[in-house]
Amino acid sequence: MTVPIATYRLQFRNGMTFDKAITLIDHWKALGISHLYASPIFSATDGSTHGYDVTDPNAFDAALGGREGFDRLAAALKAAGIGLILDIVPNHMAASLENRWWRSVVEWGEQSPYAHYYDIDWSRPLTIAELGKSFDEALDDAEIEIRLDEAAGNLALGYYESNIPLQPSSYSAVLDGAPGTLGAKIVALAASASAQEDDAFHHTMHTLIAGSSEADRKALASFLAGLPVERVKAAHEAQAFRLVHWKTAASDLSYRRFFEVAGLAGLRVEAPDVFEAAHRLVLDLVRDGTVDGLRIDHVDGLADPEGYLKTLRDAVGPDVYLVVEKIIEEDERVPASWPIAGTTGYEFIAALAHLFVDSSLAKALDAAYADFAGGRDYASILRDAKQLMLDRNFEGEIKRLAALARSSVGKAYEAETLEKALKALITAFPVYRTYGTREALGADDRKILDGAAAEAAGTLSGDSRKALDAIVAVLSGAAEGDAFEFRSRFQQVTGPIMAKAMEDTAFYRYHRLLALNEVGGNPAEEEMSVARFHAAMQRRAAEQPQAITTTSTHDTKRGEDARARLYALSEAPGVWAQAVSRWHGLNAGLITTLDDGPAPEPAVEWALYQALAGAFEETSATPDAGAIEALKERFSAYVEKMLREAKMRSDWSDVNEDYEGAVQAFAAGLLSPDNKAFLDDFVQTLQPFARAGFVNGLTQTLVKMTAPGVPDVYQGSERADFSLVDPDNRRMPDYPAMAARLEQTGGFPFDAEARASGQAKIALTARLISARRAAPGLFEDGDYQPLEISGEASGSVVAYARRSGDAAAIIVAPCKVLGILEKGDIDHAFDAIQVSLPEDLAGRSYRNVLQGGAIDVGRTLDLRDVQGAPYVLLITE
């Protein structure tokens, strides 16, 4: 397998096109990047901001430059010696009429050659959750009519801008009594139409309509517009689909969706012909050498991830770099049988937190948060969030599971009893999913299932308790027929429920330390230590040494340097709590009292101060007014998302305008120039945390570049990145400014000005990638060994070694430095630190990668002898 040296994640769309990307190649070369790691680039819905709503996996998006633009980019990358990794989306496609496959399914129902491409329950009509009210209400309000869609060449149910195609077999009833000859000609043509020759039919229809007189077209359009309500309703009932209120998607959708997004339909790539159809272009790109690697989006959404990955590996060969987006919980392992390099690295972010969070003060932080915000512990918040998902957001999925369970376990249990047992089991599930196929569940998965079942059993009694045992028996044993279908669907639904409950609900309800509210992390984790970080890295070196190591992605909740700063709050919970108390008093006049309580409530107020502390890039004593105004707009978007994702007093599906307006006014008031007393206090309080954050940010970069795995630089994070959650973290970075900073870094600056400008980070990034290029085997295959540290401030240092054969590297970096910084300059605070070296690392000469020159090392490495300490990277000569 060809393993990258370092990747650069680029978000296409939002101004980034293939030709724009070409202009960044010199910047990537200067950084030393080996591979461009591109977000989805295939055709997506019009105006898509992310590309995961694919409409055609076998065409490049015209908005990015189409095939010609891609070919120019591919040629330019090849000439520069930079490889290409593509993000592909096998789990779902856009449930949009822009998607030719989906349009065919809507129009022809089960007759469509693409009907089996999607997970659709064909025991009933396909639901299209697009209406703002029920169909009958929309029809009575004259919002729905039958139209002649001249551009598409068909009859359609029109709803505002949408034209949903009618099945040709229904044309004759619709056009009965139509004036002129055009209607009769359309009926005659439709009579011979077939789903297999769909394109030919629409082409002929379009030609027929275009060739008719304007008078005939107008007469037919007028006839259709004047059809009585009963006739339009009958036409709707004759279709393979039903138009329904968008709010019913959670309870009554007839197809598997991505998470809770009705606009993304689950794709059945486990079917060989669907796999081939959905991968035709990307496999061509791999086979002709244009593409070197693939990132598999949401692998847990597939019916059989292992089967898919083995099929993909067979198709691309052994040398293509494959990674999967998968969230690993606690002690979970990526199945060793998966033929991949590893994951996209969320678990690495969670491991990094162990370096920076002072868990010895966790109880003080807990107490401070509880005193101010009240509320419950994180475990109960997550449990409530799961139950909300089960009862409301995924009601339809649970009903379908219960029906499948009844078919699998027999008719002894009523659907309601099975639903209760299923909800208890899913609530207790500690990971995103298990990976059973037709055989009995493997030992690791059985352990997970049995543990969840034991916990669920404690909440059940009577028939529901017995139903749980029956369900577990089906989920754990060999499975065929209905039992296999049940197991597959169960495994596909536990992940979305976990994700939406945790990442998109609980993370926005529990605000103790927002830096830990990160994908793959545990916001309430208390036992955090450098020793645990070492254990995670040793495991990583053994299990997935070639996986991606990342510190930011398009899905992380905040920029990596925002997290690095907020980690430091754990070192001074008292200071933070006192500050929040002061700010609460200063901003009391901005709080609105509503019938259901204050807005913002204390927990949200605490969260707003922390979120603002992470995003506040300008931390000088006199912050720039223009920068604050720009932040105000970005912060407002974040506040909206924060409140709606929490689903407490407002929600995406039920917006509480009074509450949101009051909280938005509070947030805007925090950044108002009229609120000088608060802003002055806020900036002054923030400064020591910001200084510690810059140190943490550099350590984070040094560790990412030298720990096991392939380091990824998320766009713009080569400099300090204080982004908020998406879409803020998908903004176009200021590439000219970053290129200028990189050009200015002749040496390796660590002074305060360089740290604050991001120049130190970008210089460090380039220097470290260069070191990886010079010793690829060491970092690709090297083991990981923690090193013992002694001396004053040893609790604020992490040290480890990488070894491969005779090659070795020694890495030392500062962490938990808030108290040290308060005492003075960091540059000499670690002079007393000594790093003990094992025999095979001692008595050797090393190159000082960061500062240049060489150093001879005995059994102990004294940091006072290393220029540039406490940031140290030594590699054997």
Short structural description:
The protein is an alpha/beta fold. It is 46% helix and 15% strand. It has an eight-stranded parallel beta sheet with strand order 16-15-14-5-2-1-20-17, sandwiched between helices. Strands 21-23-24-29-26-27 form a six-stranded antiparallel beta sheet.
What does this structure look like?
This protein is an alpha/beta fold and 877 residues long. It has an 8-stranded parallel β-sheet, sandwiched between helices. It has a 6-stranded antiparallel β-sheet with strand order 21-23-24-29-26-27. The protein has a 3-stranded antiparallel β-sheet with strand order 6-13-12, with no helix packed on it. Helix 16 packs across helix 21 and helix 17 runs antiparallel to helix 21 (481-502). The mean pLDDT is 95.
**What fraction strand?**
5-15%
Q: First CA to last CA: what distance? A: 27 Å
Radius of gyration: 29 Å
Shape: globular
Oligomer: single chain
The chain-level mean pLDDT equals 95
Strand segment count: 29
Helix content: 40-55%
Question: Number of helical segments?
Answer: 33
* Low-pLDDT segments, ≥5 res: none
- Going across the major beta sheet, what is the strand order? 16-15-14-5-2-1-20-17
**Main sheet properties:** 8 strands, parallel
Q: Structural class from helices and strands?
A: alpha/beta
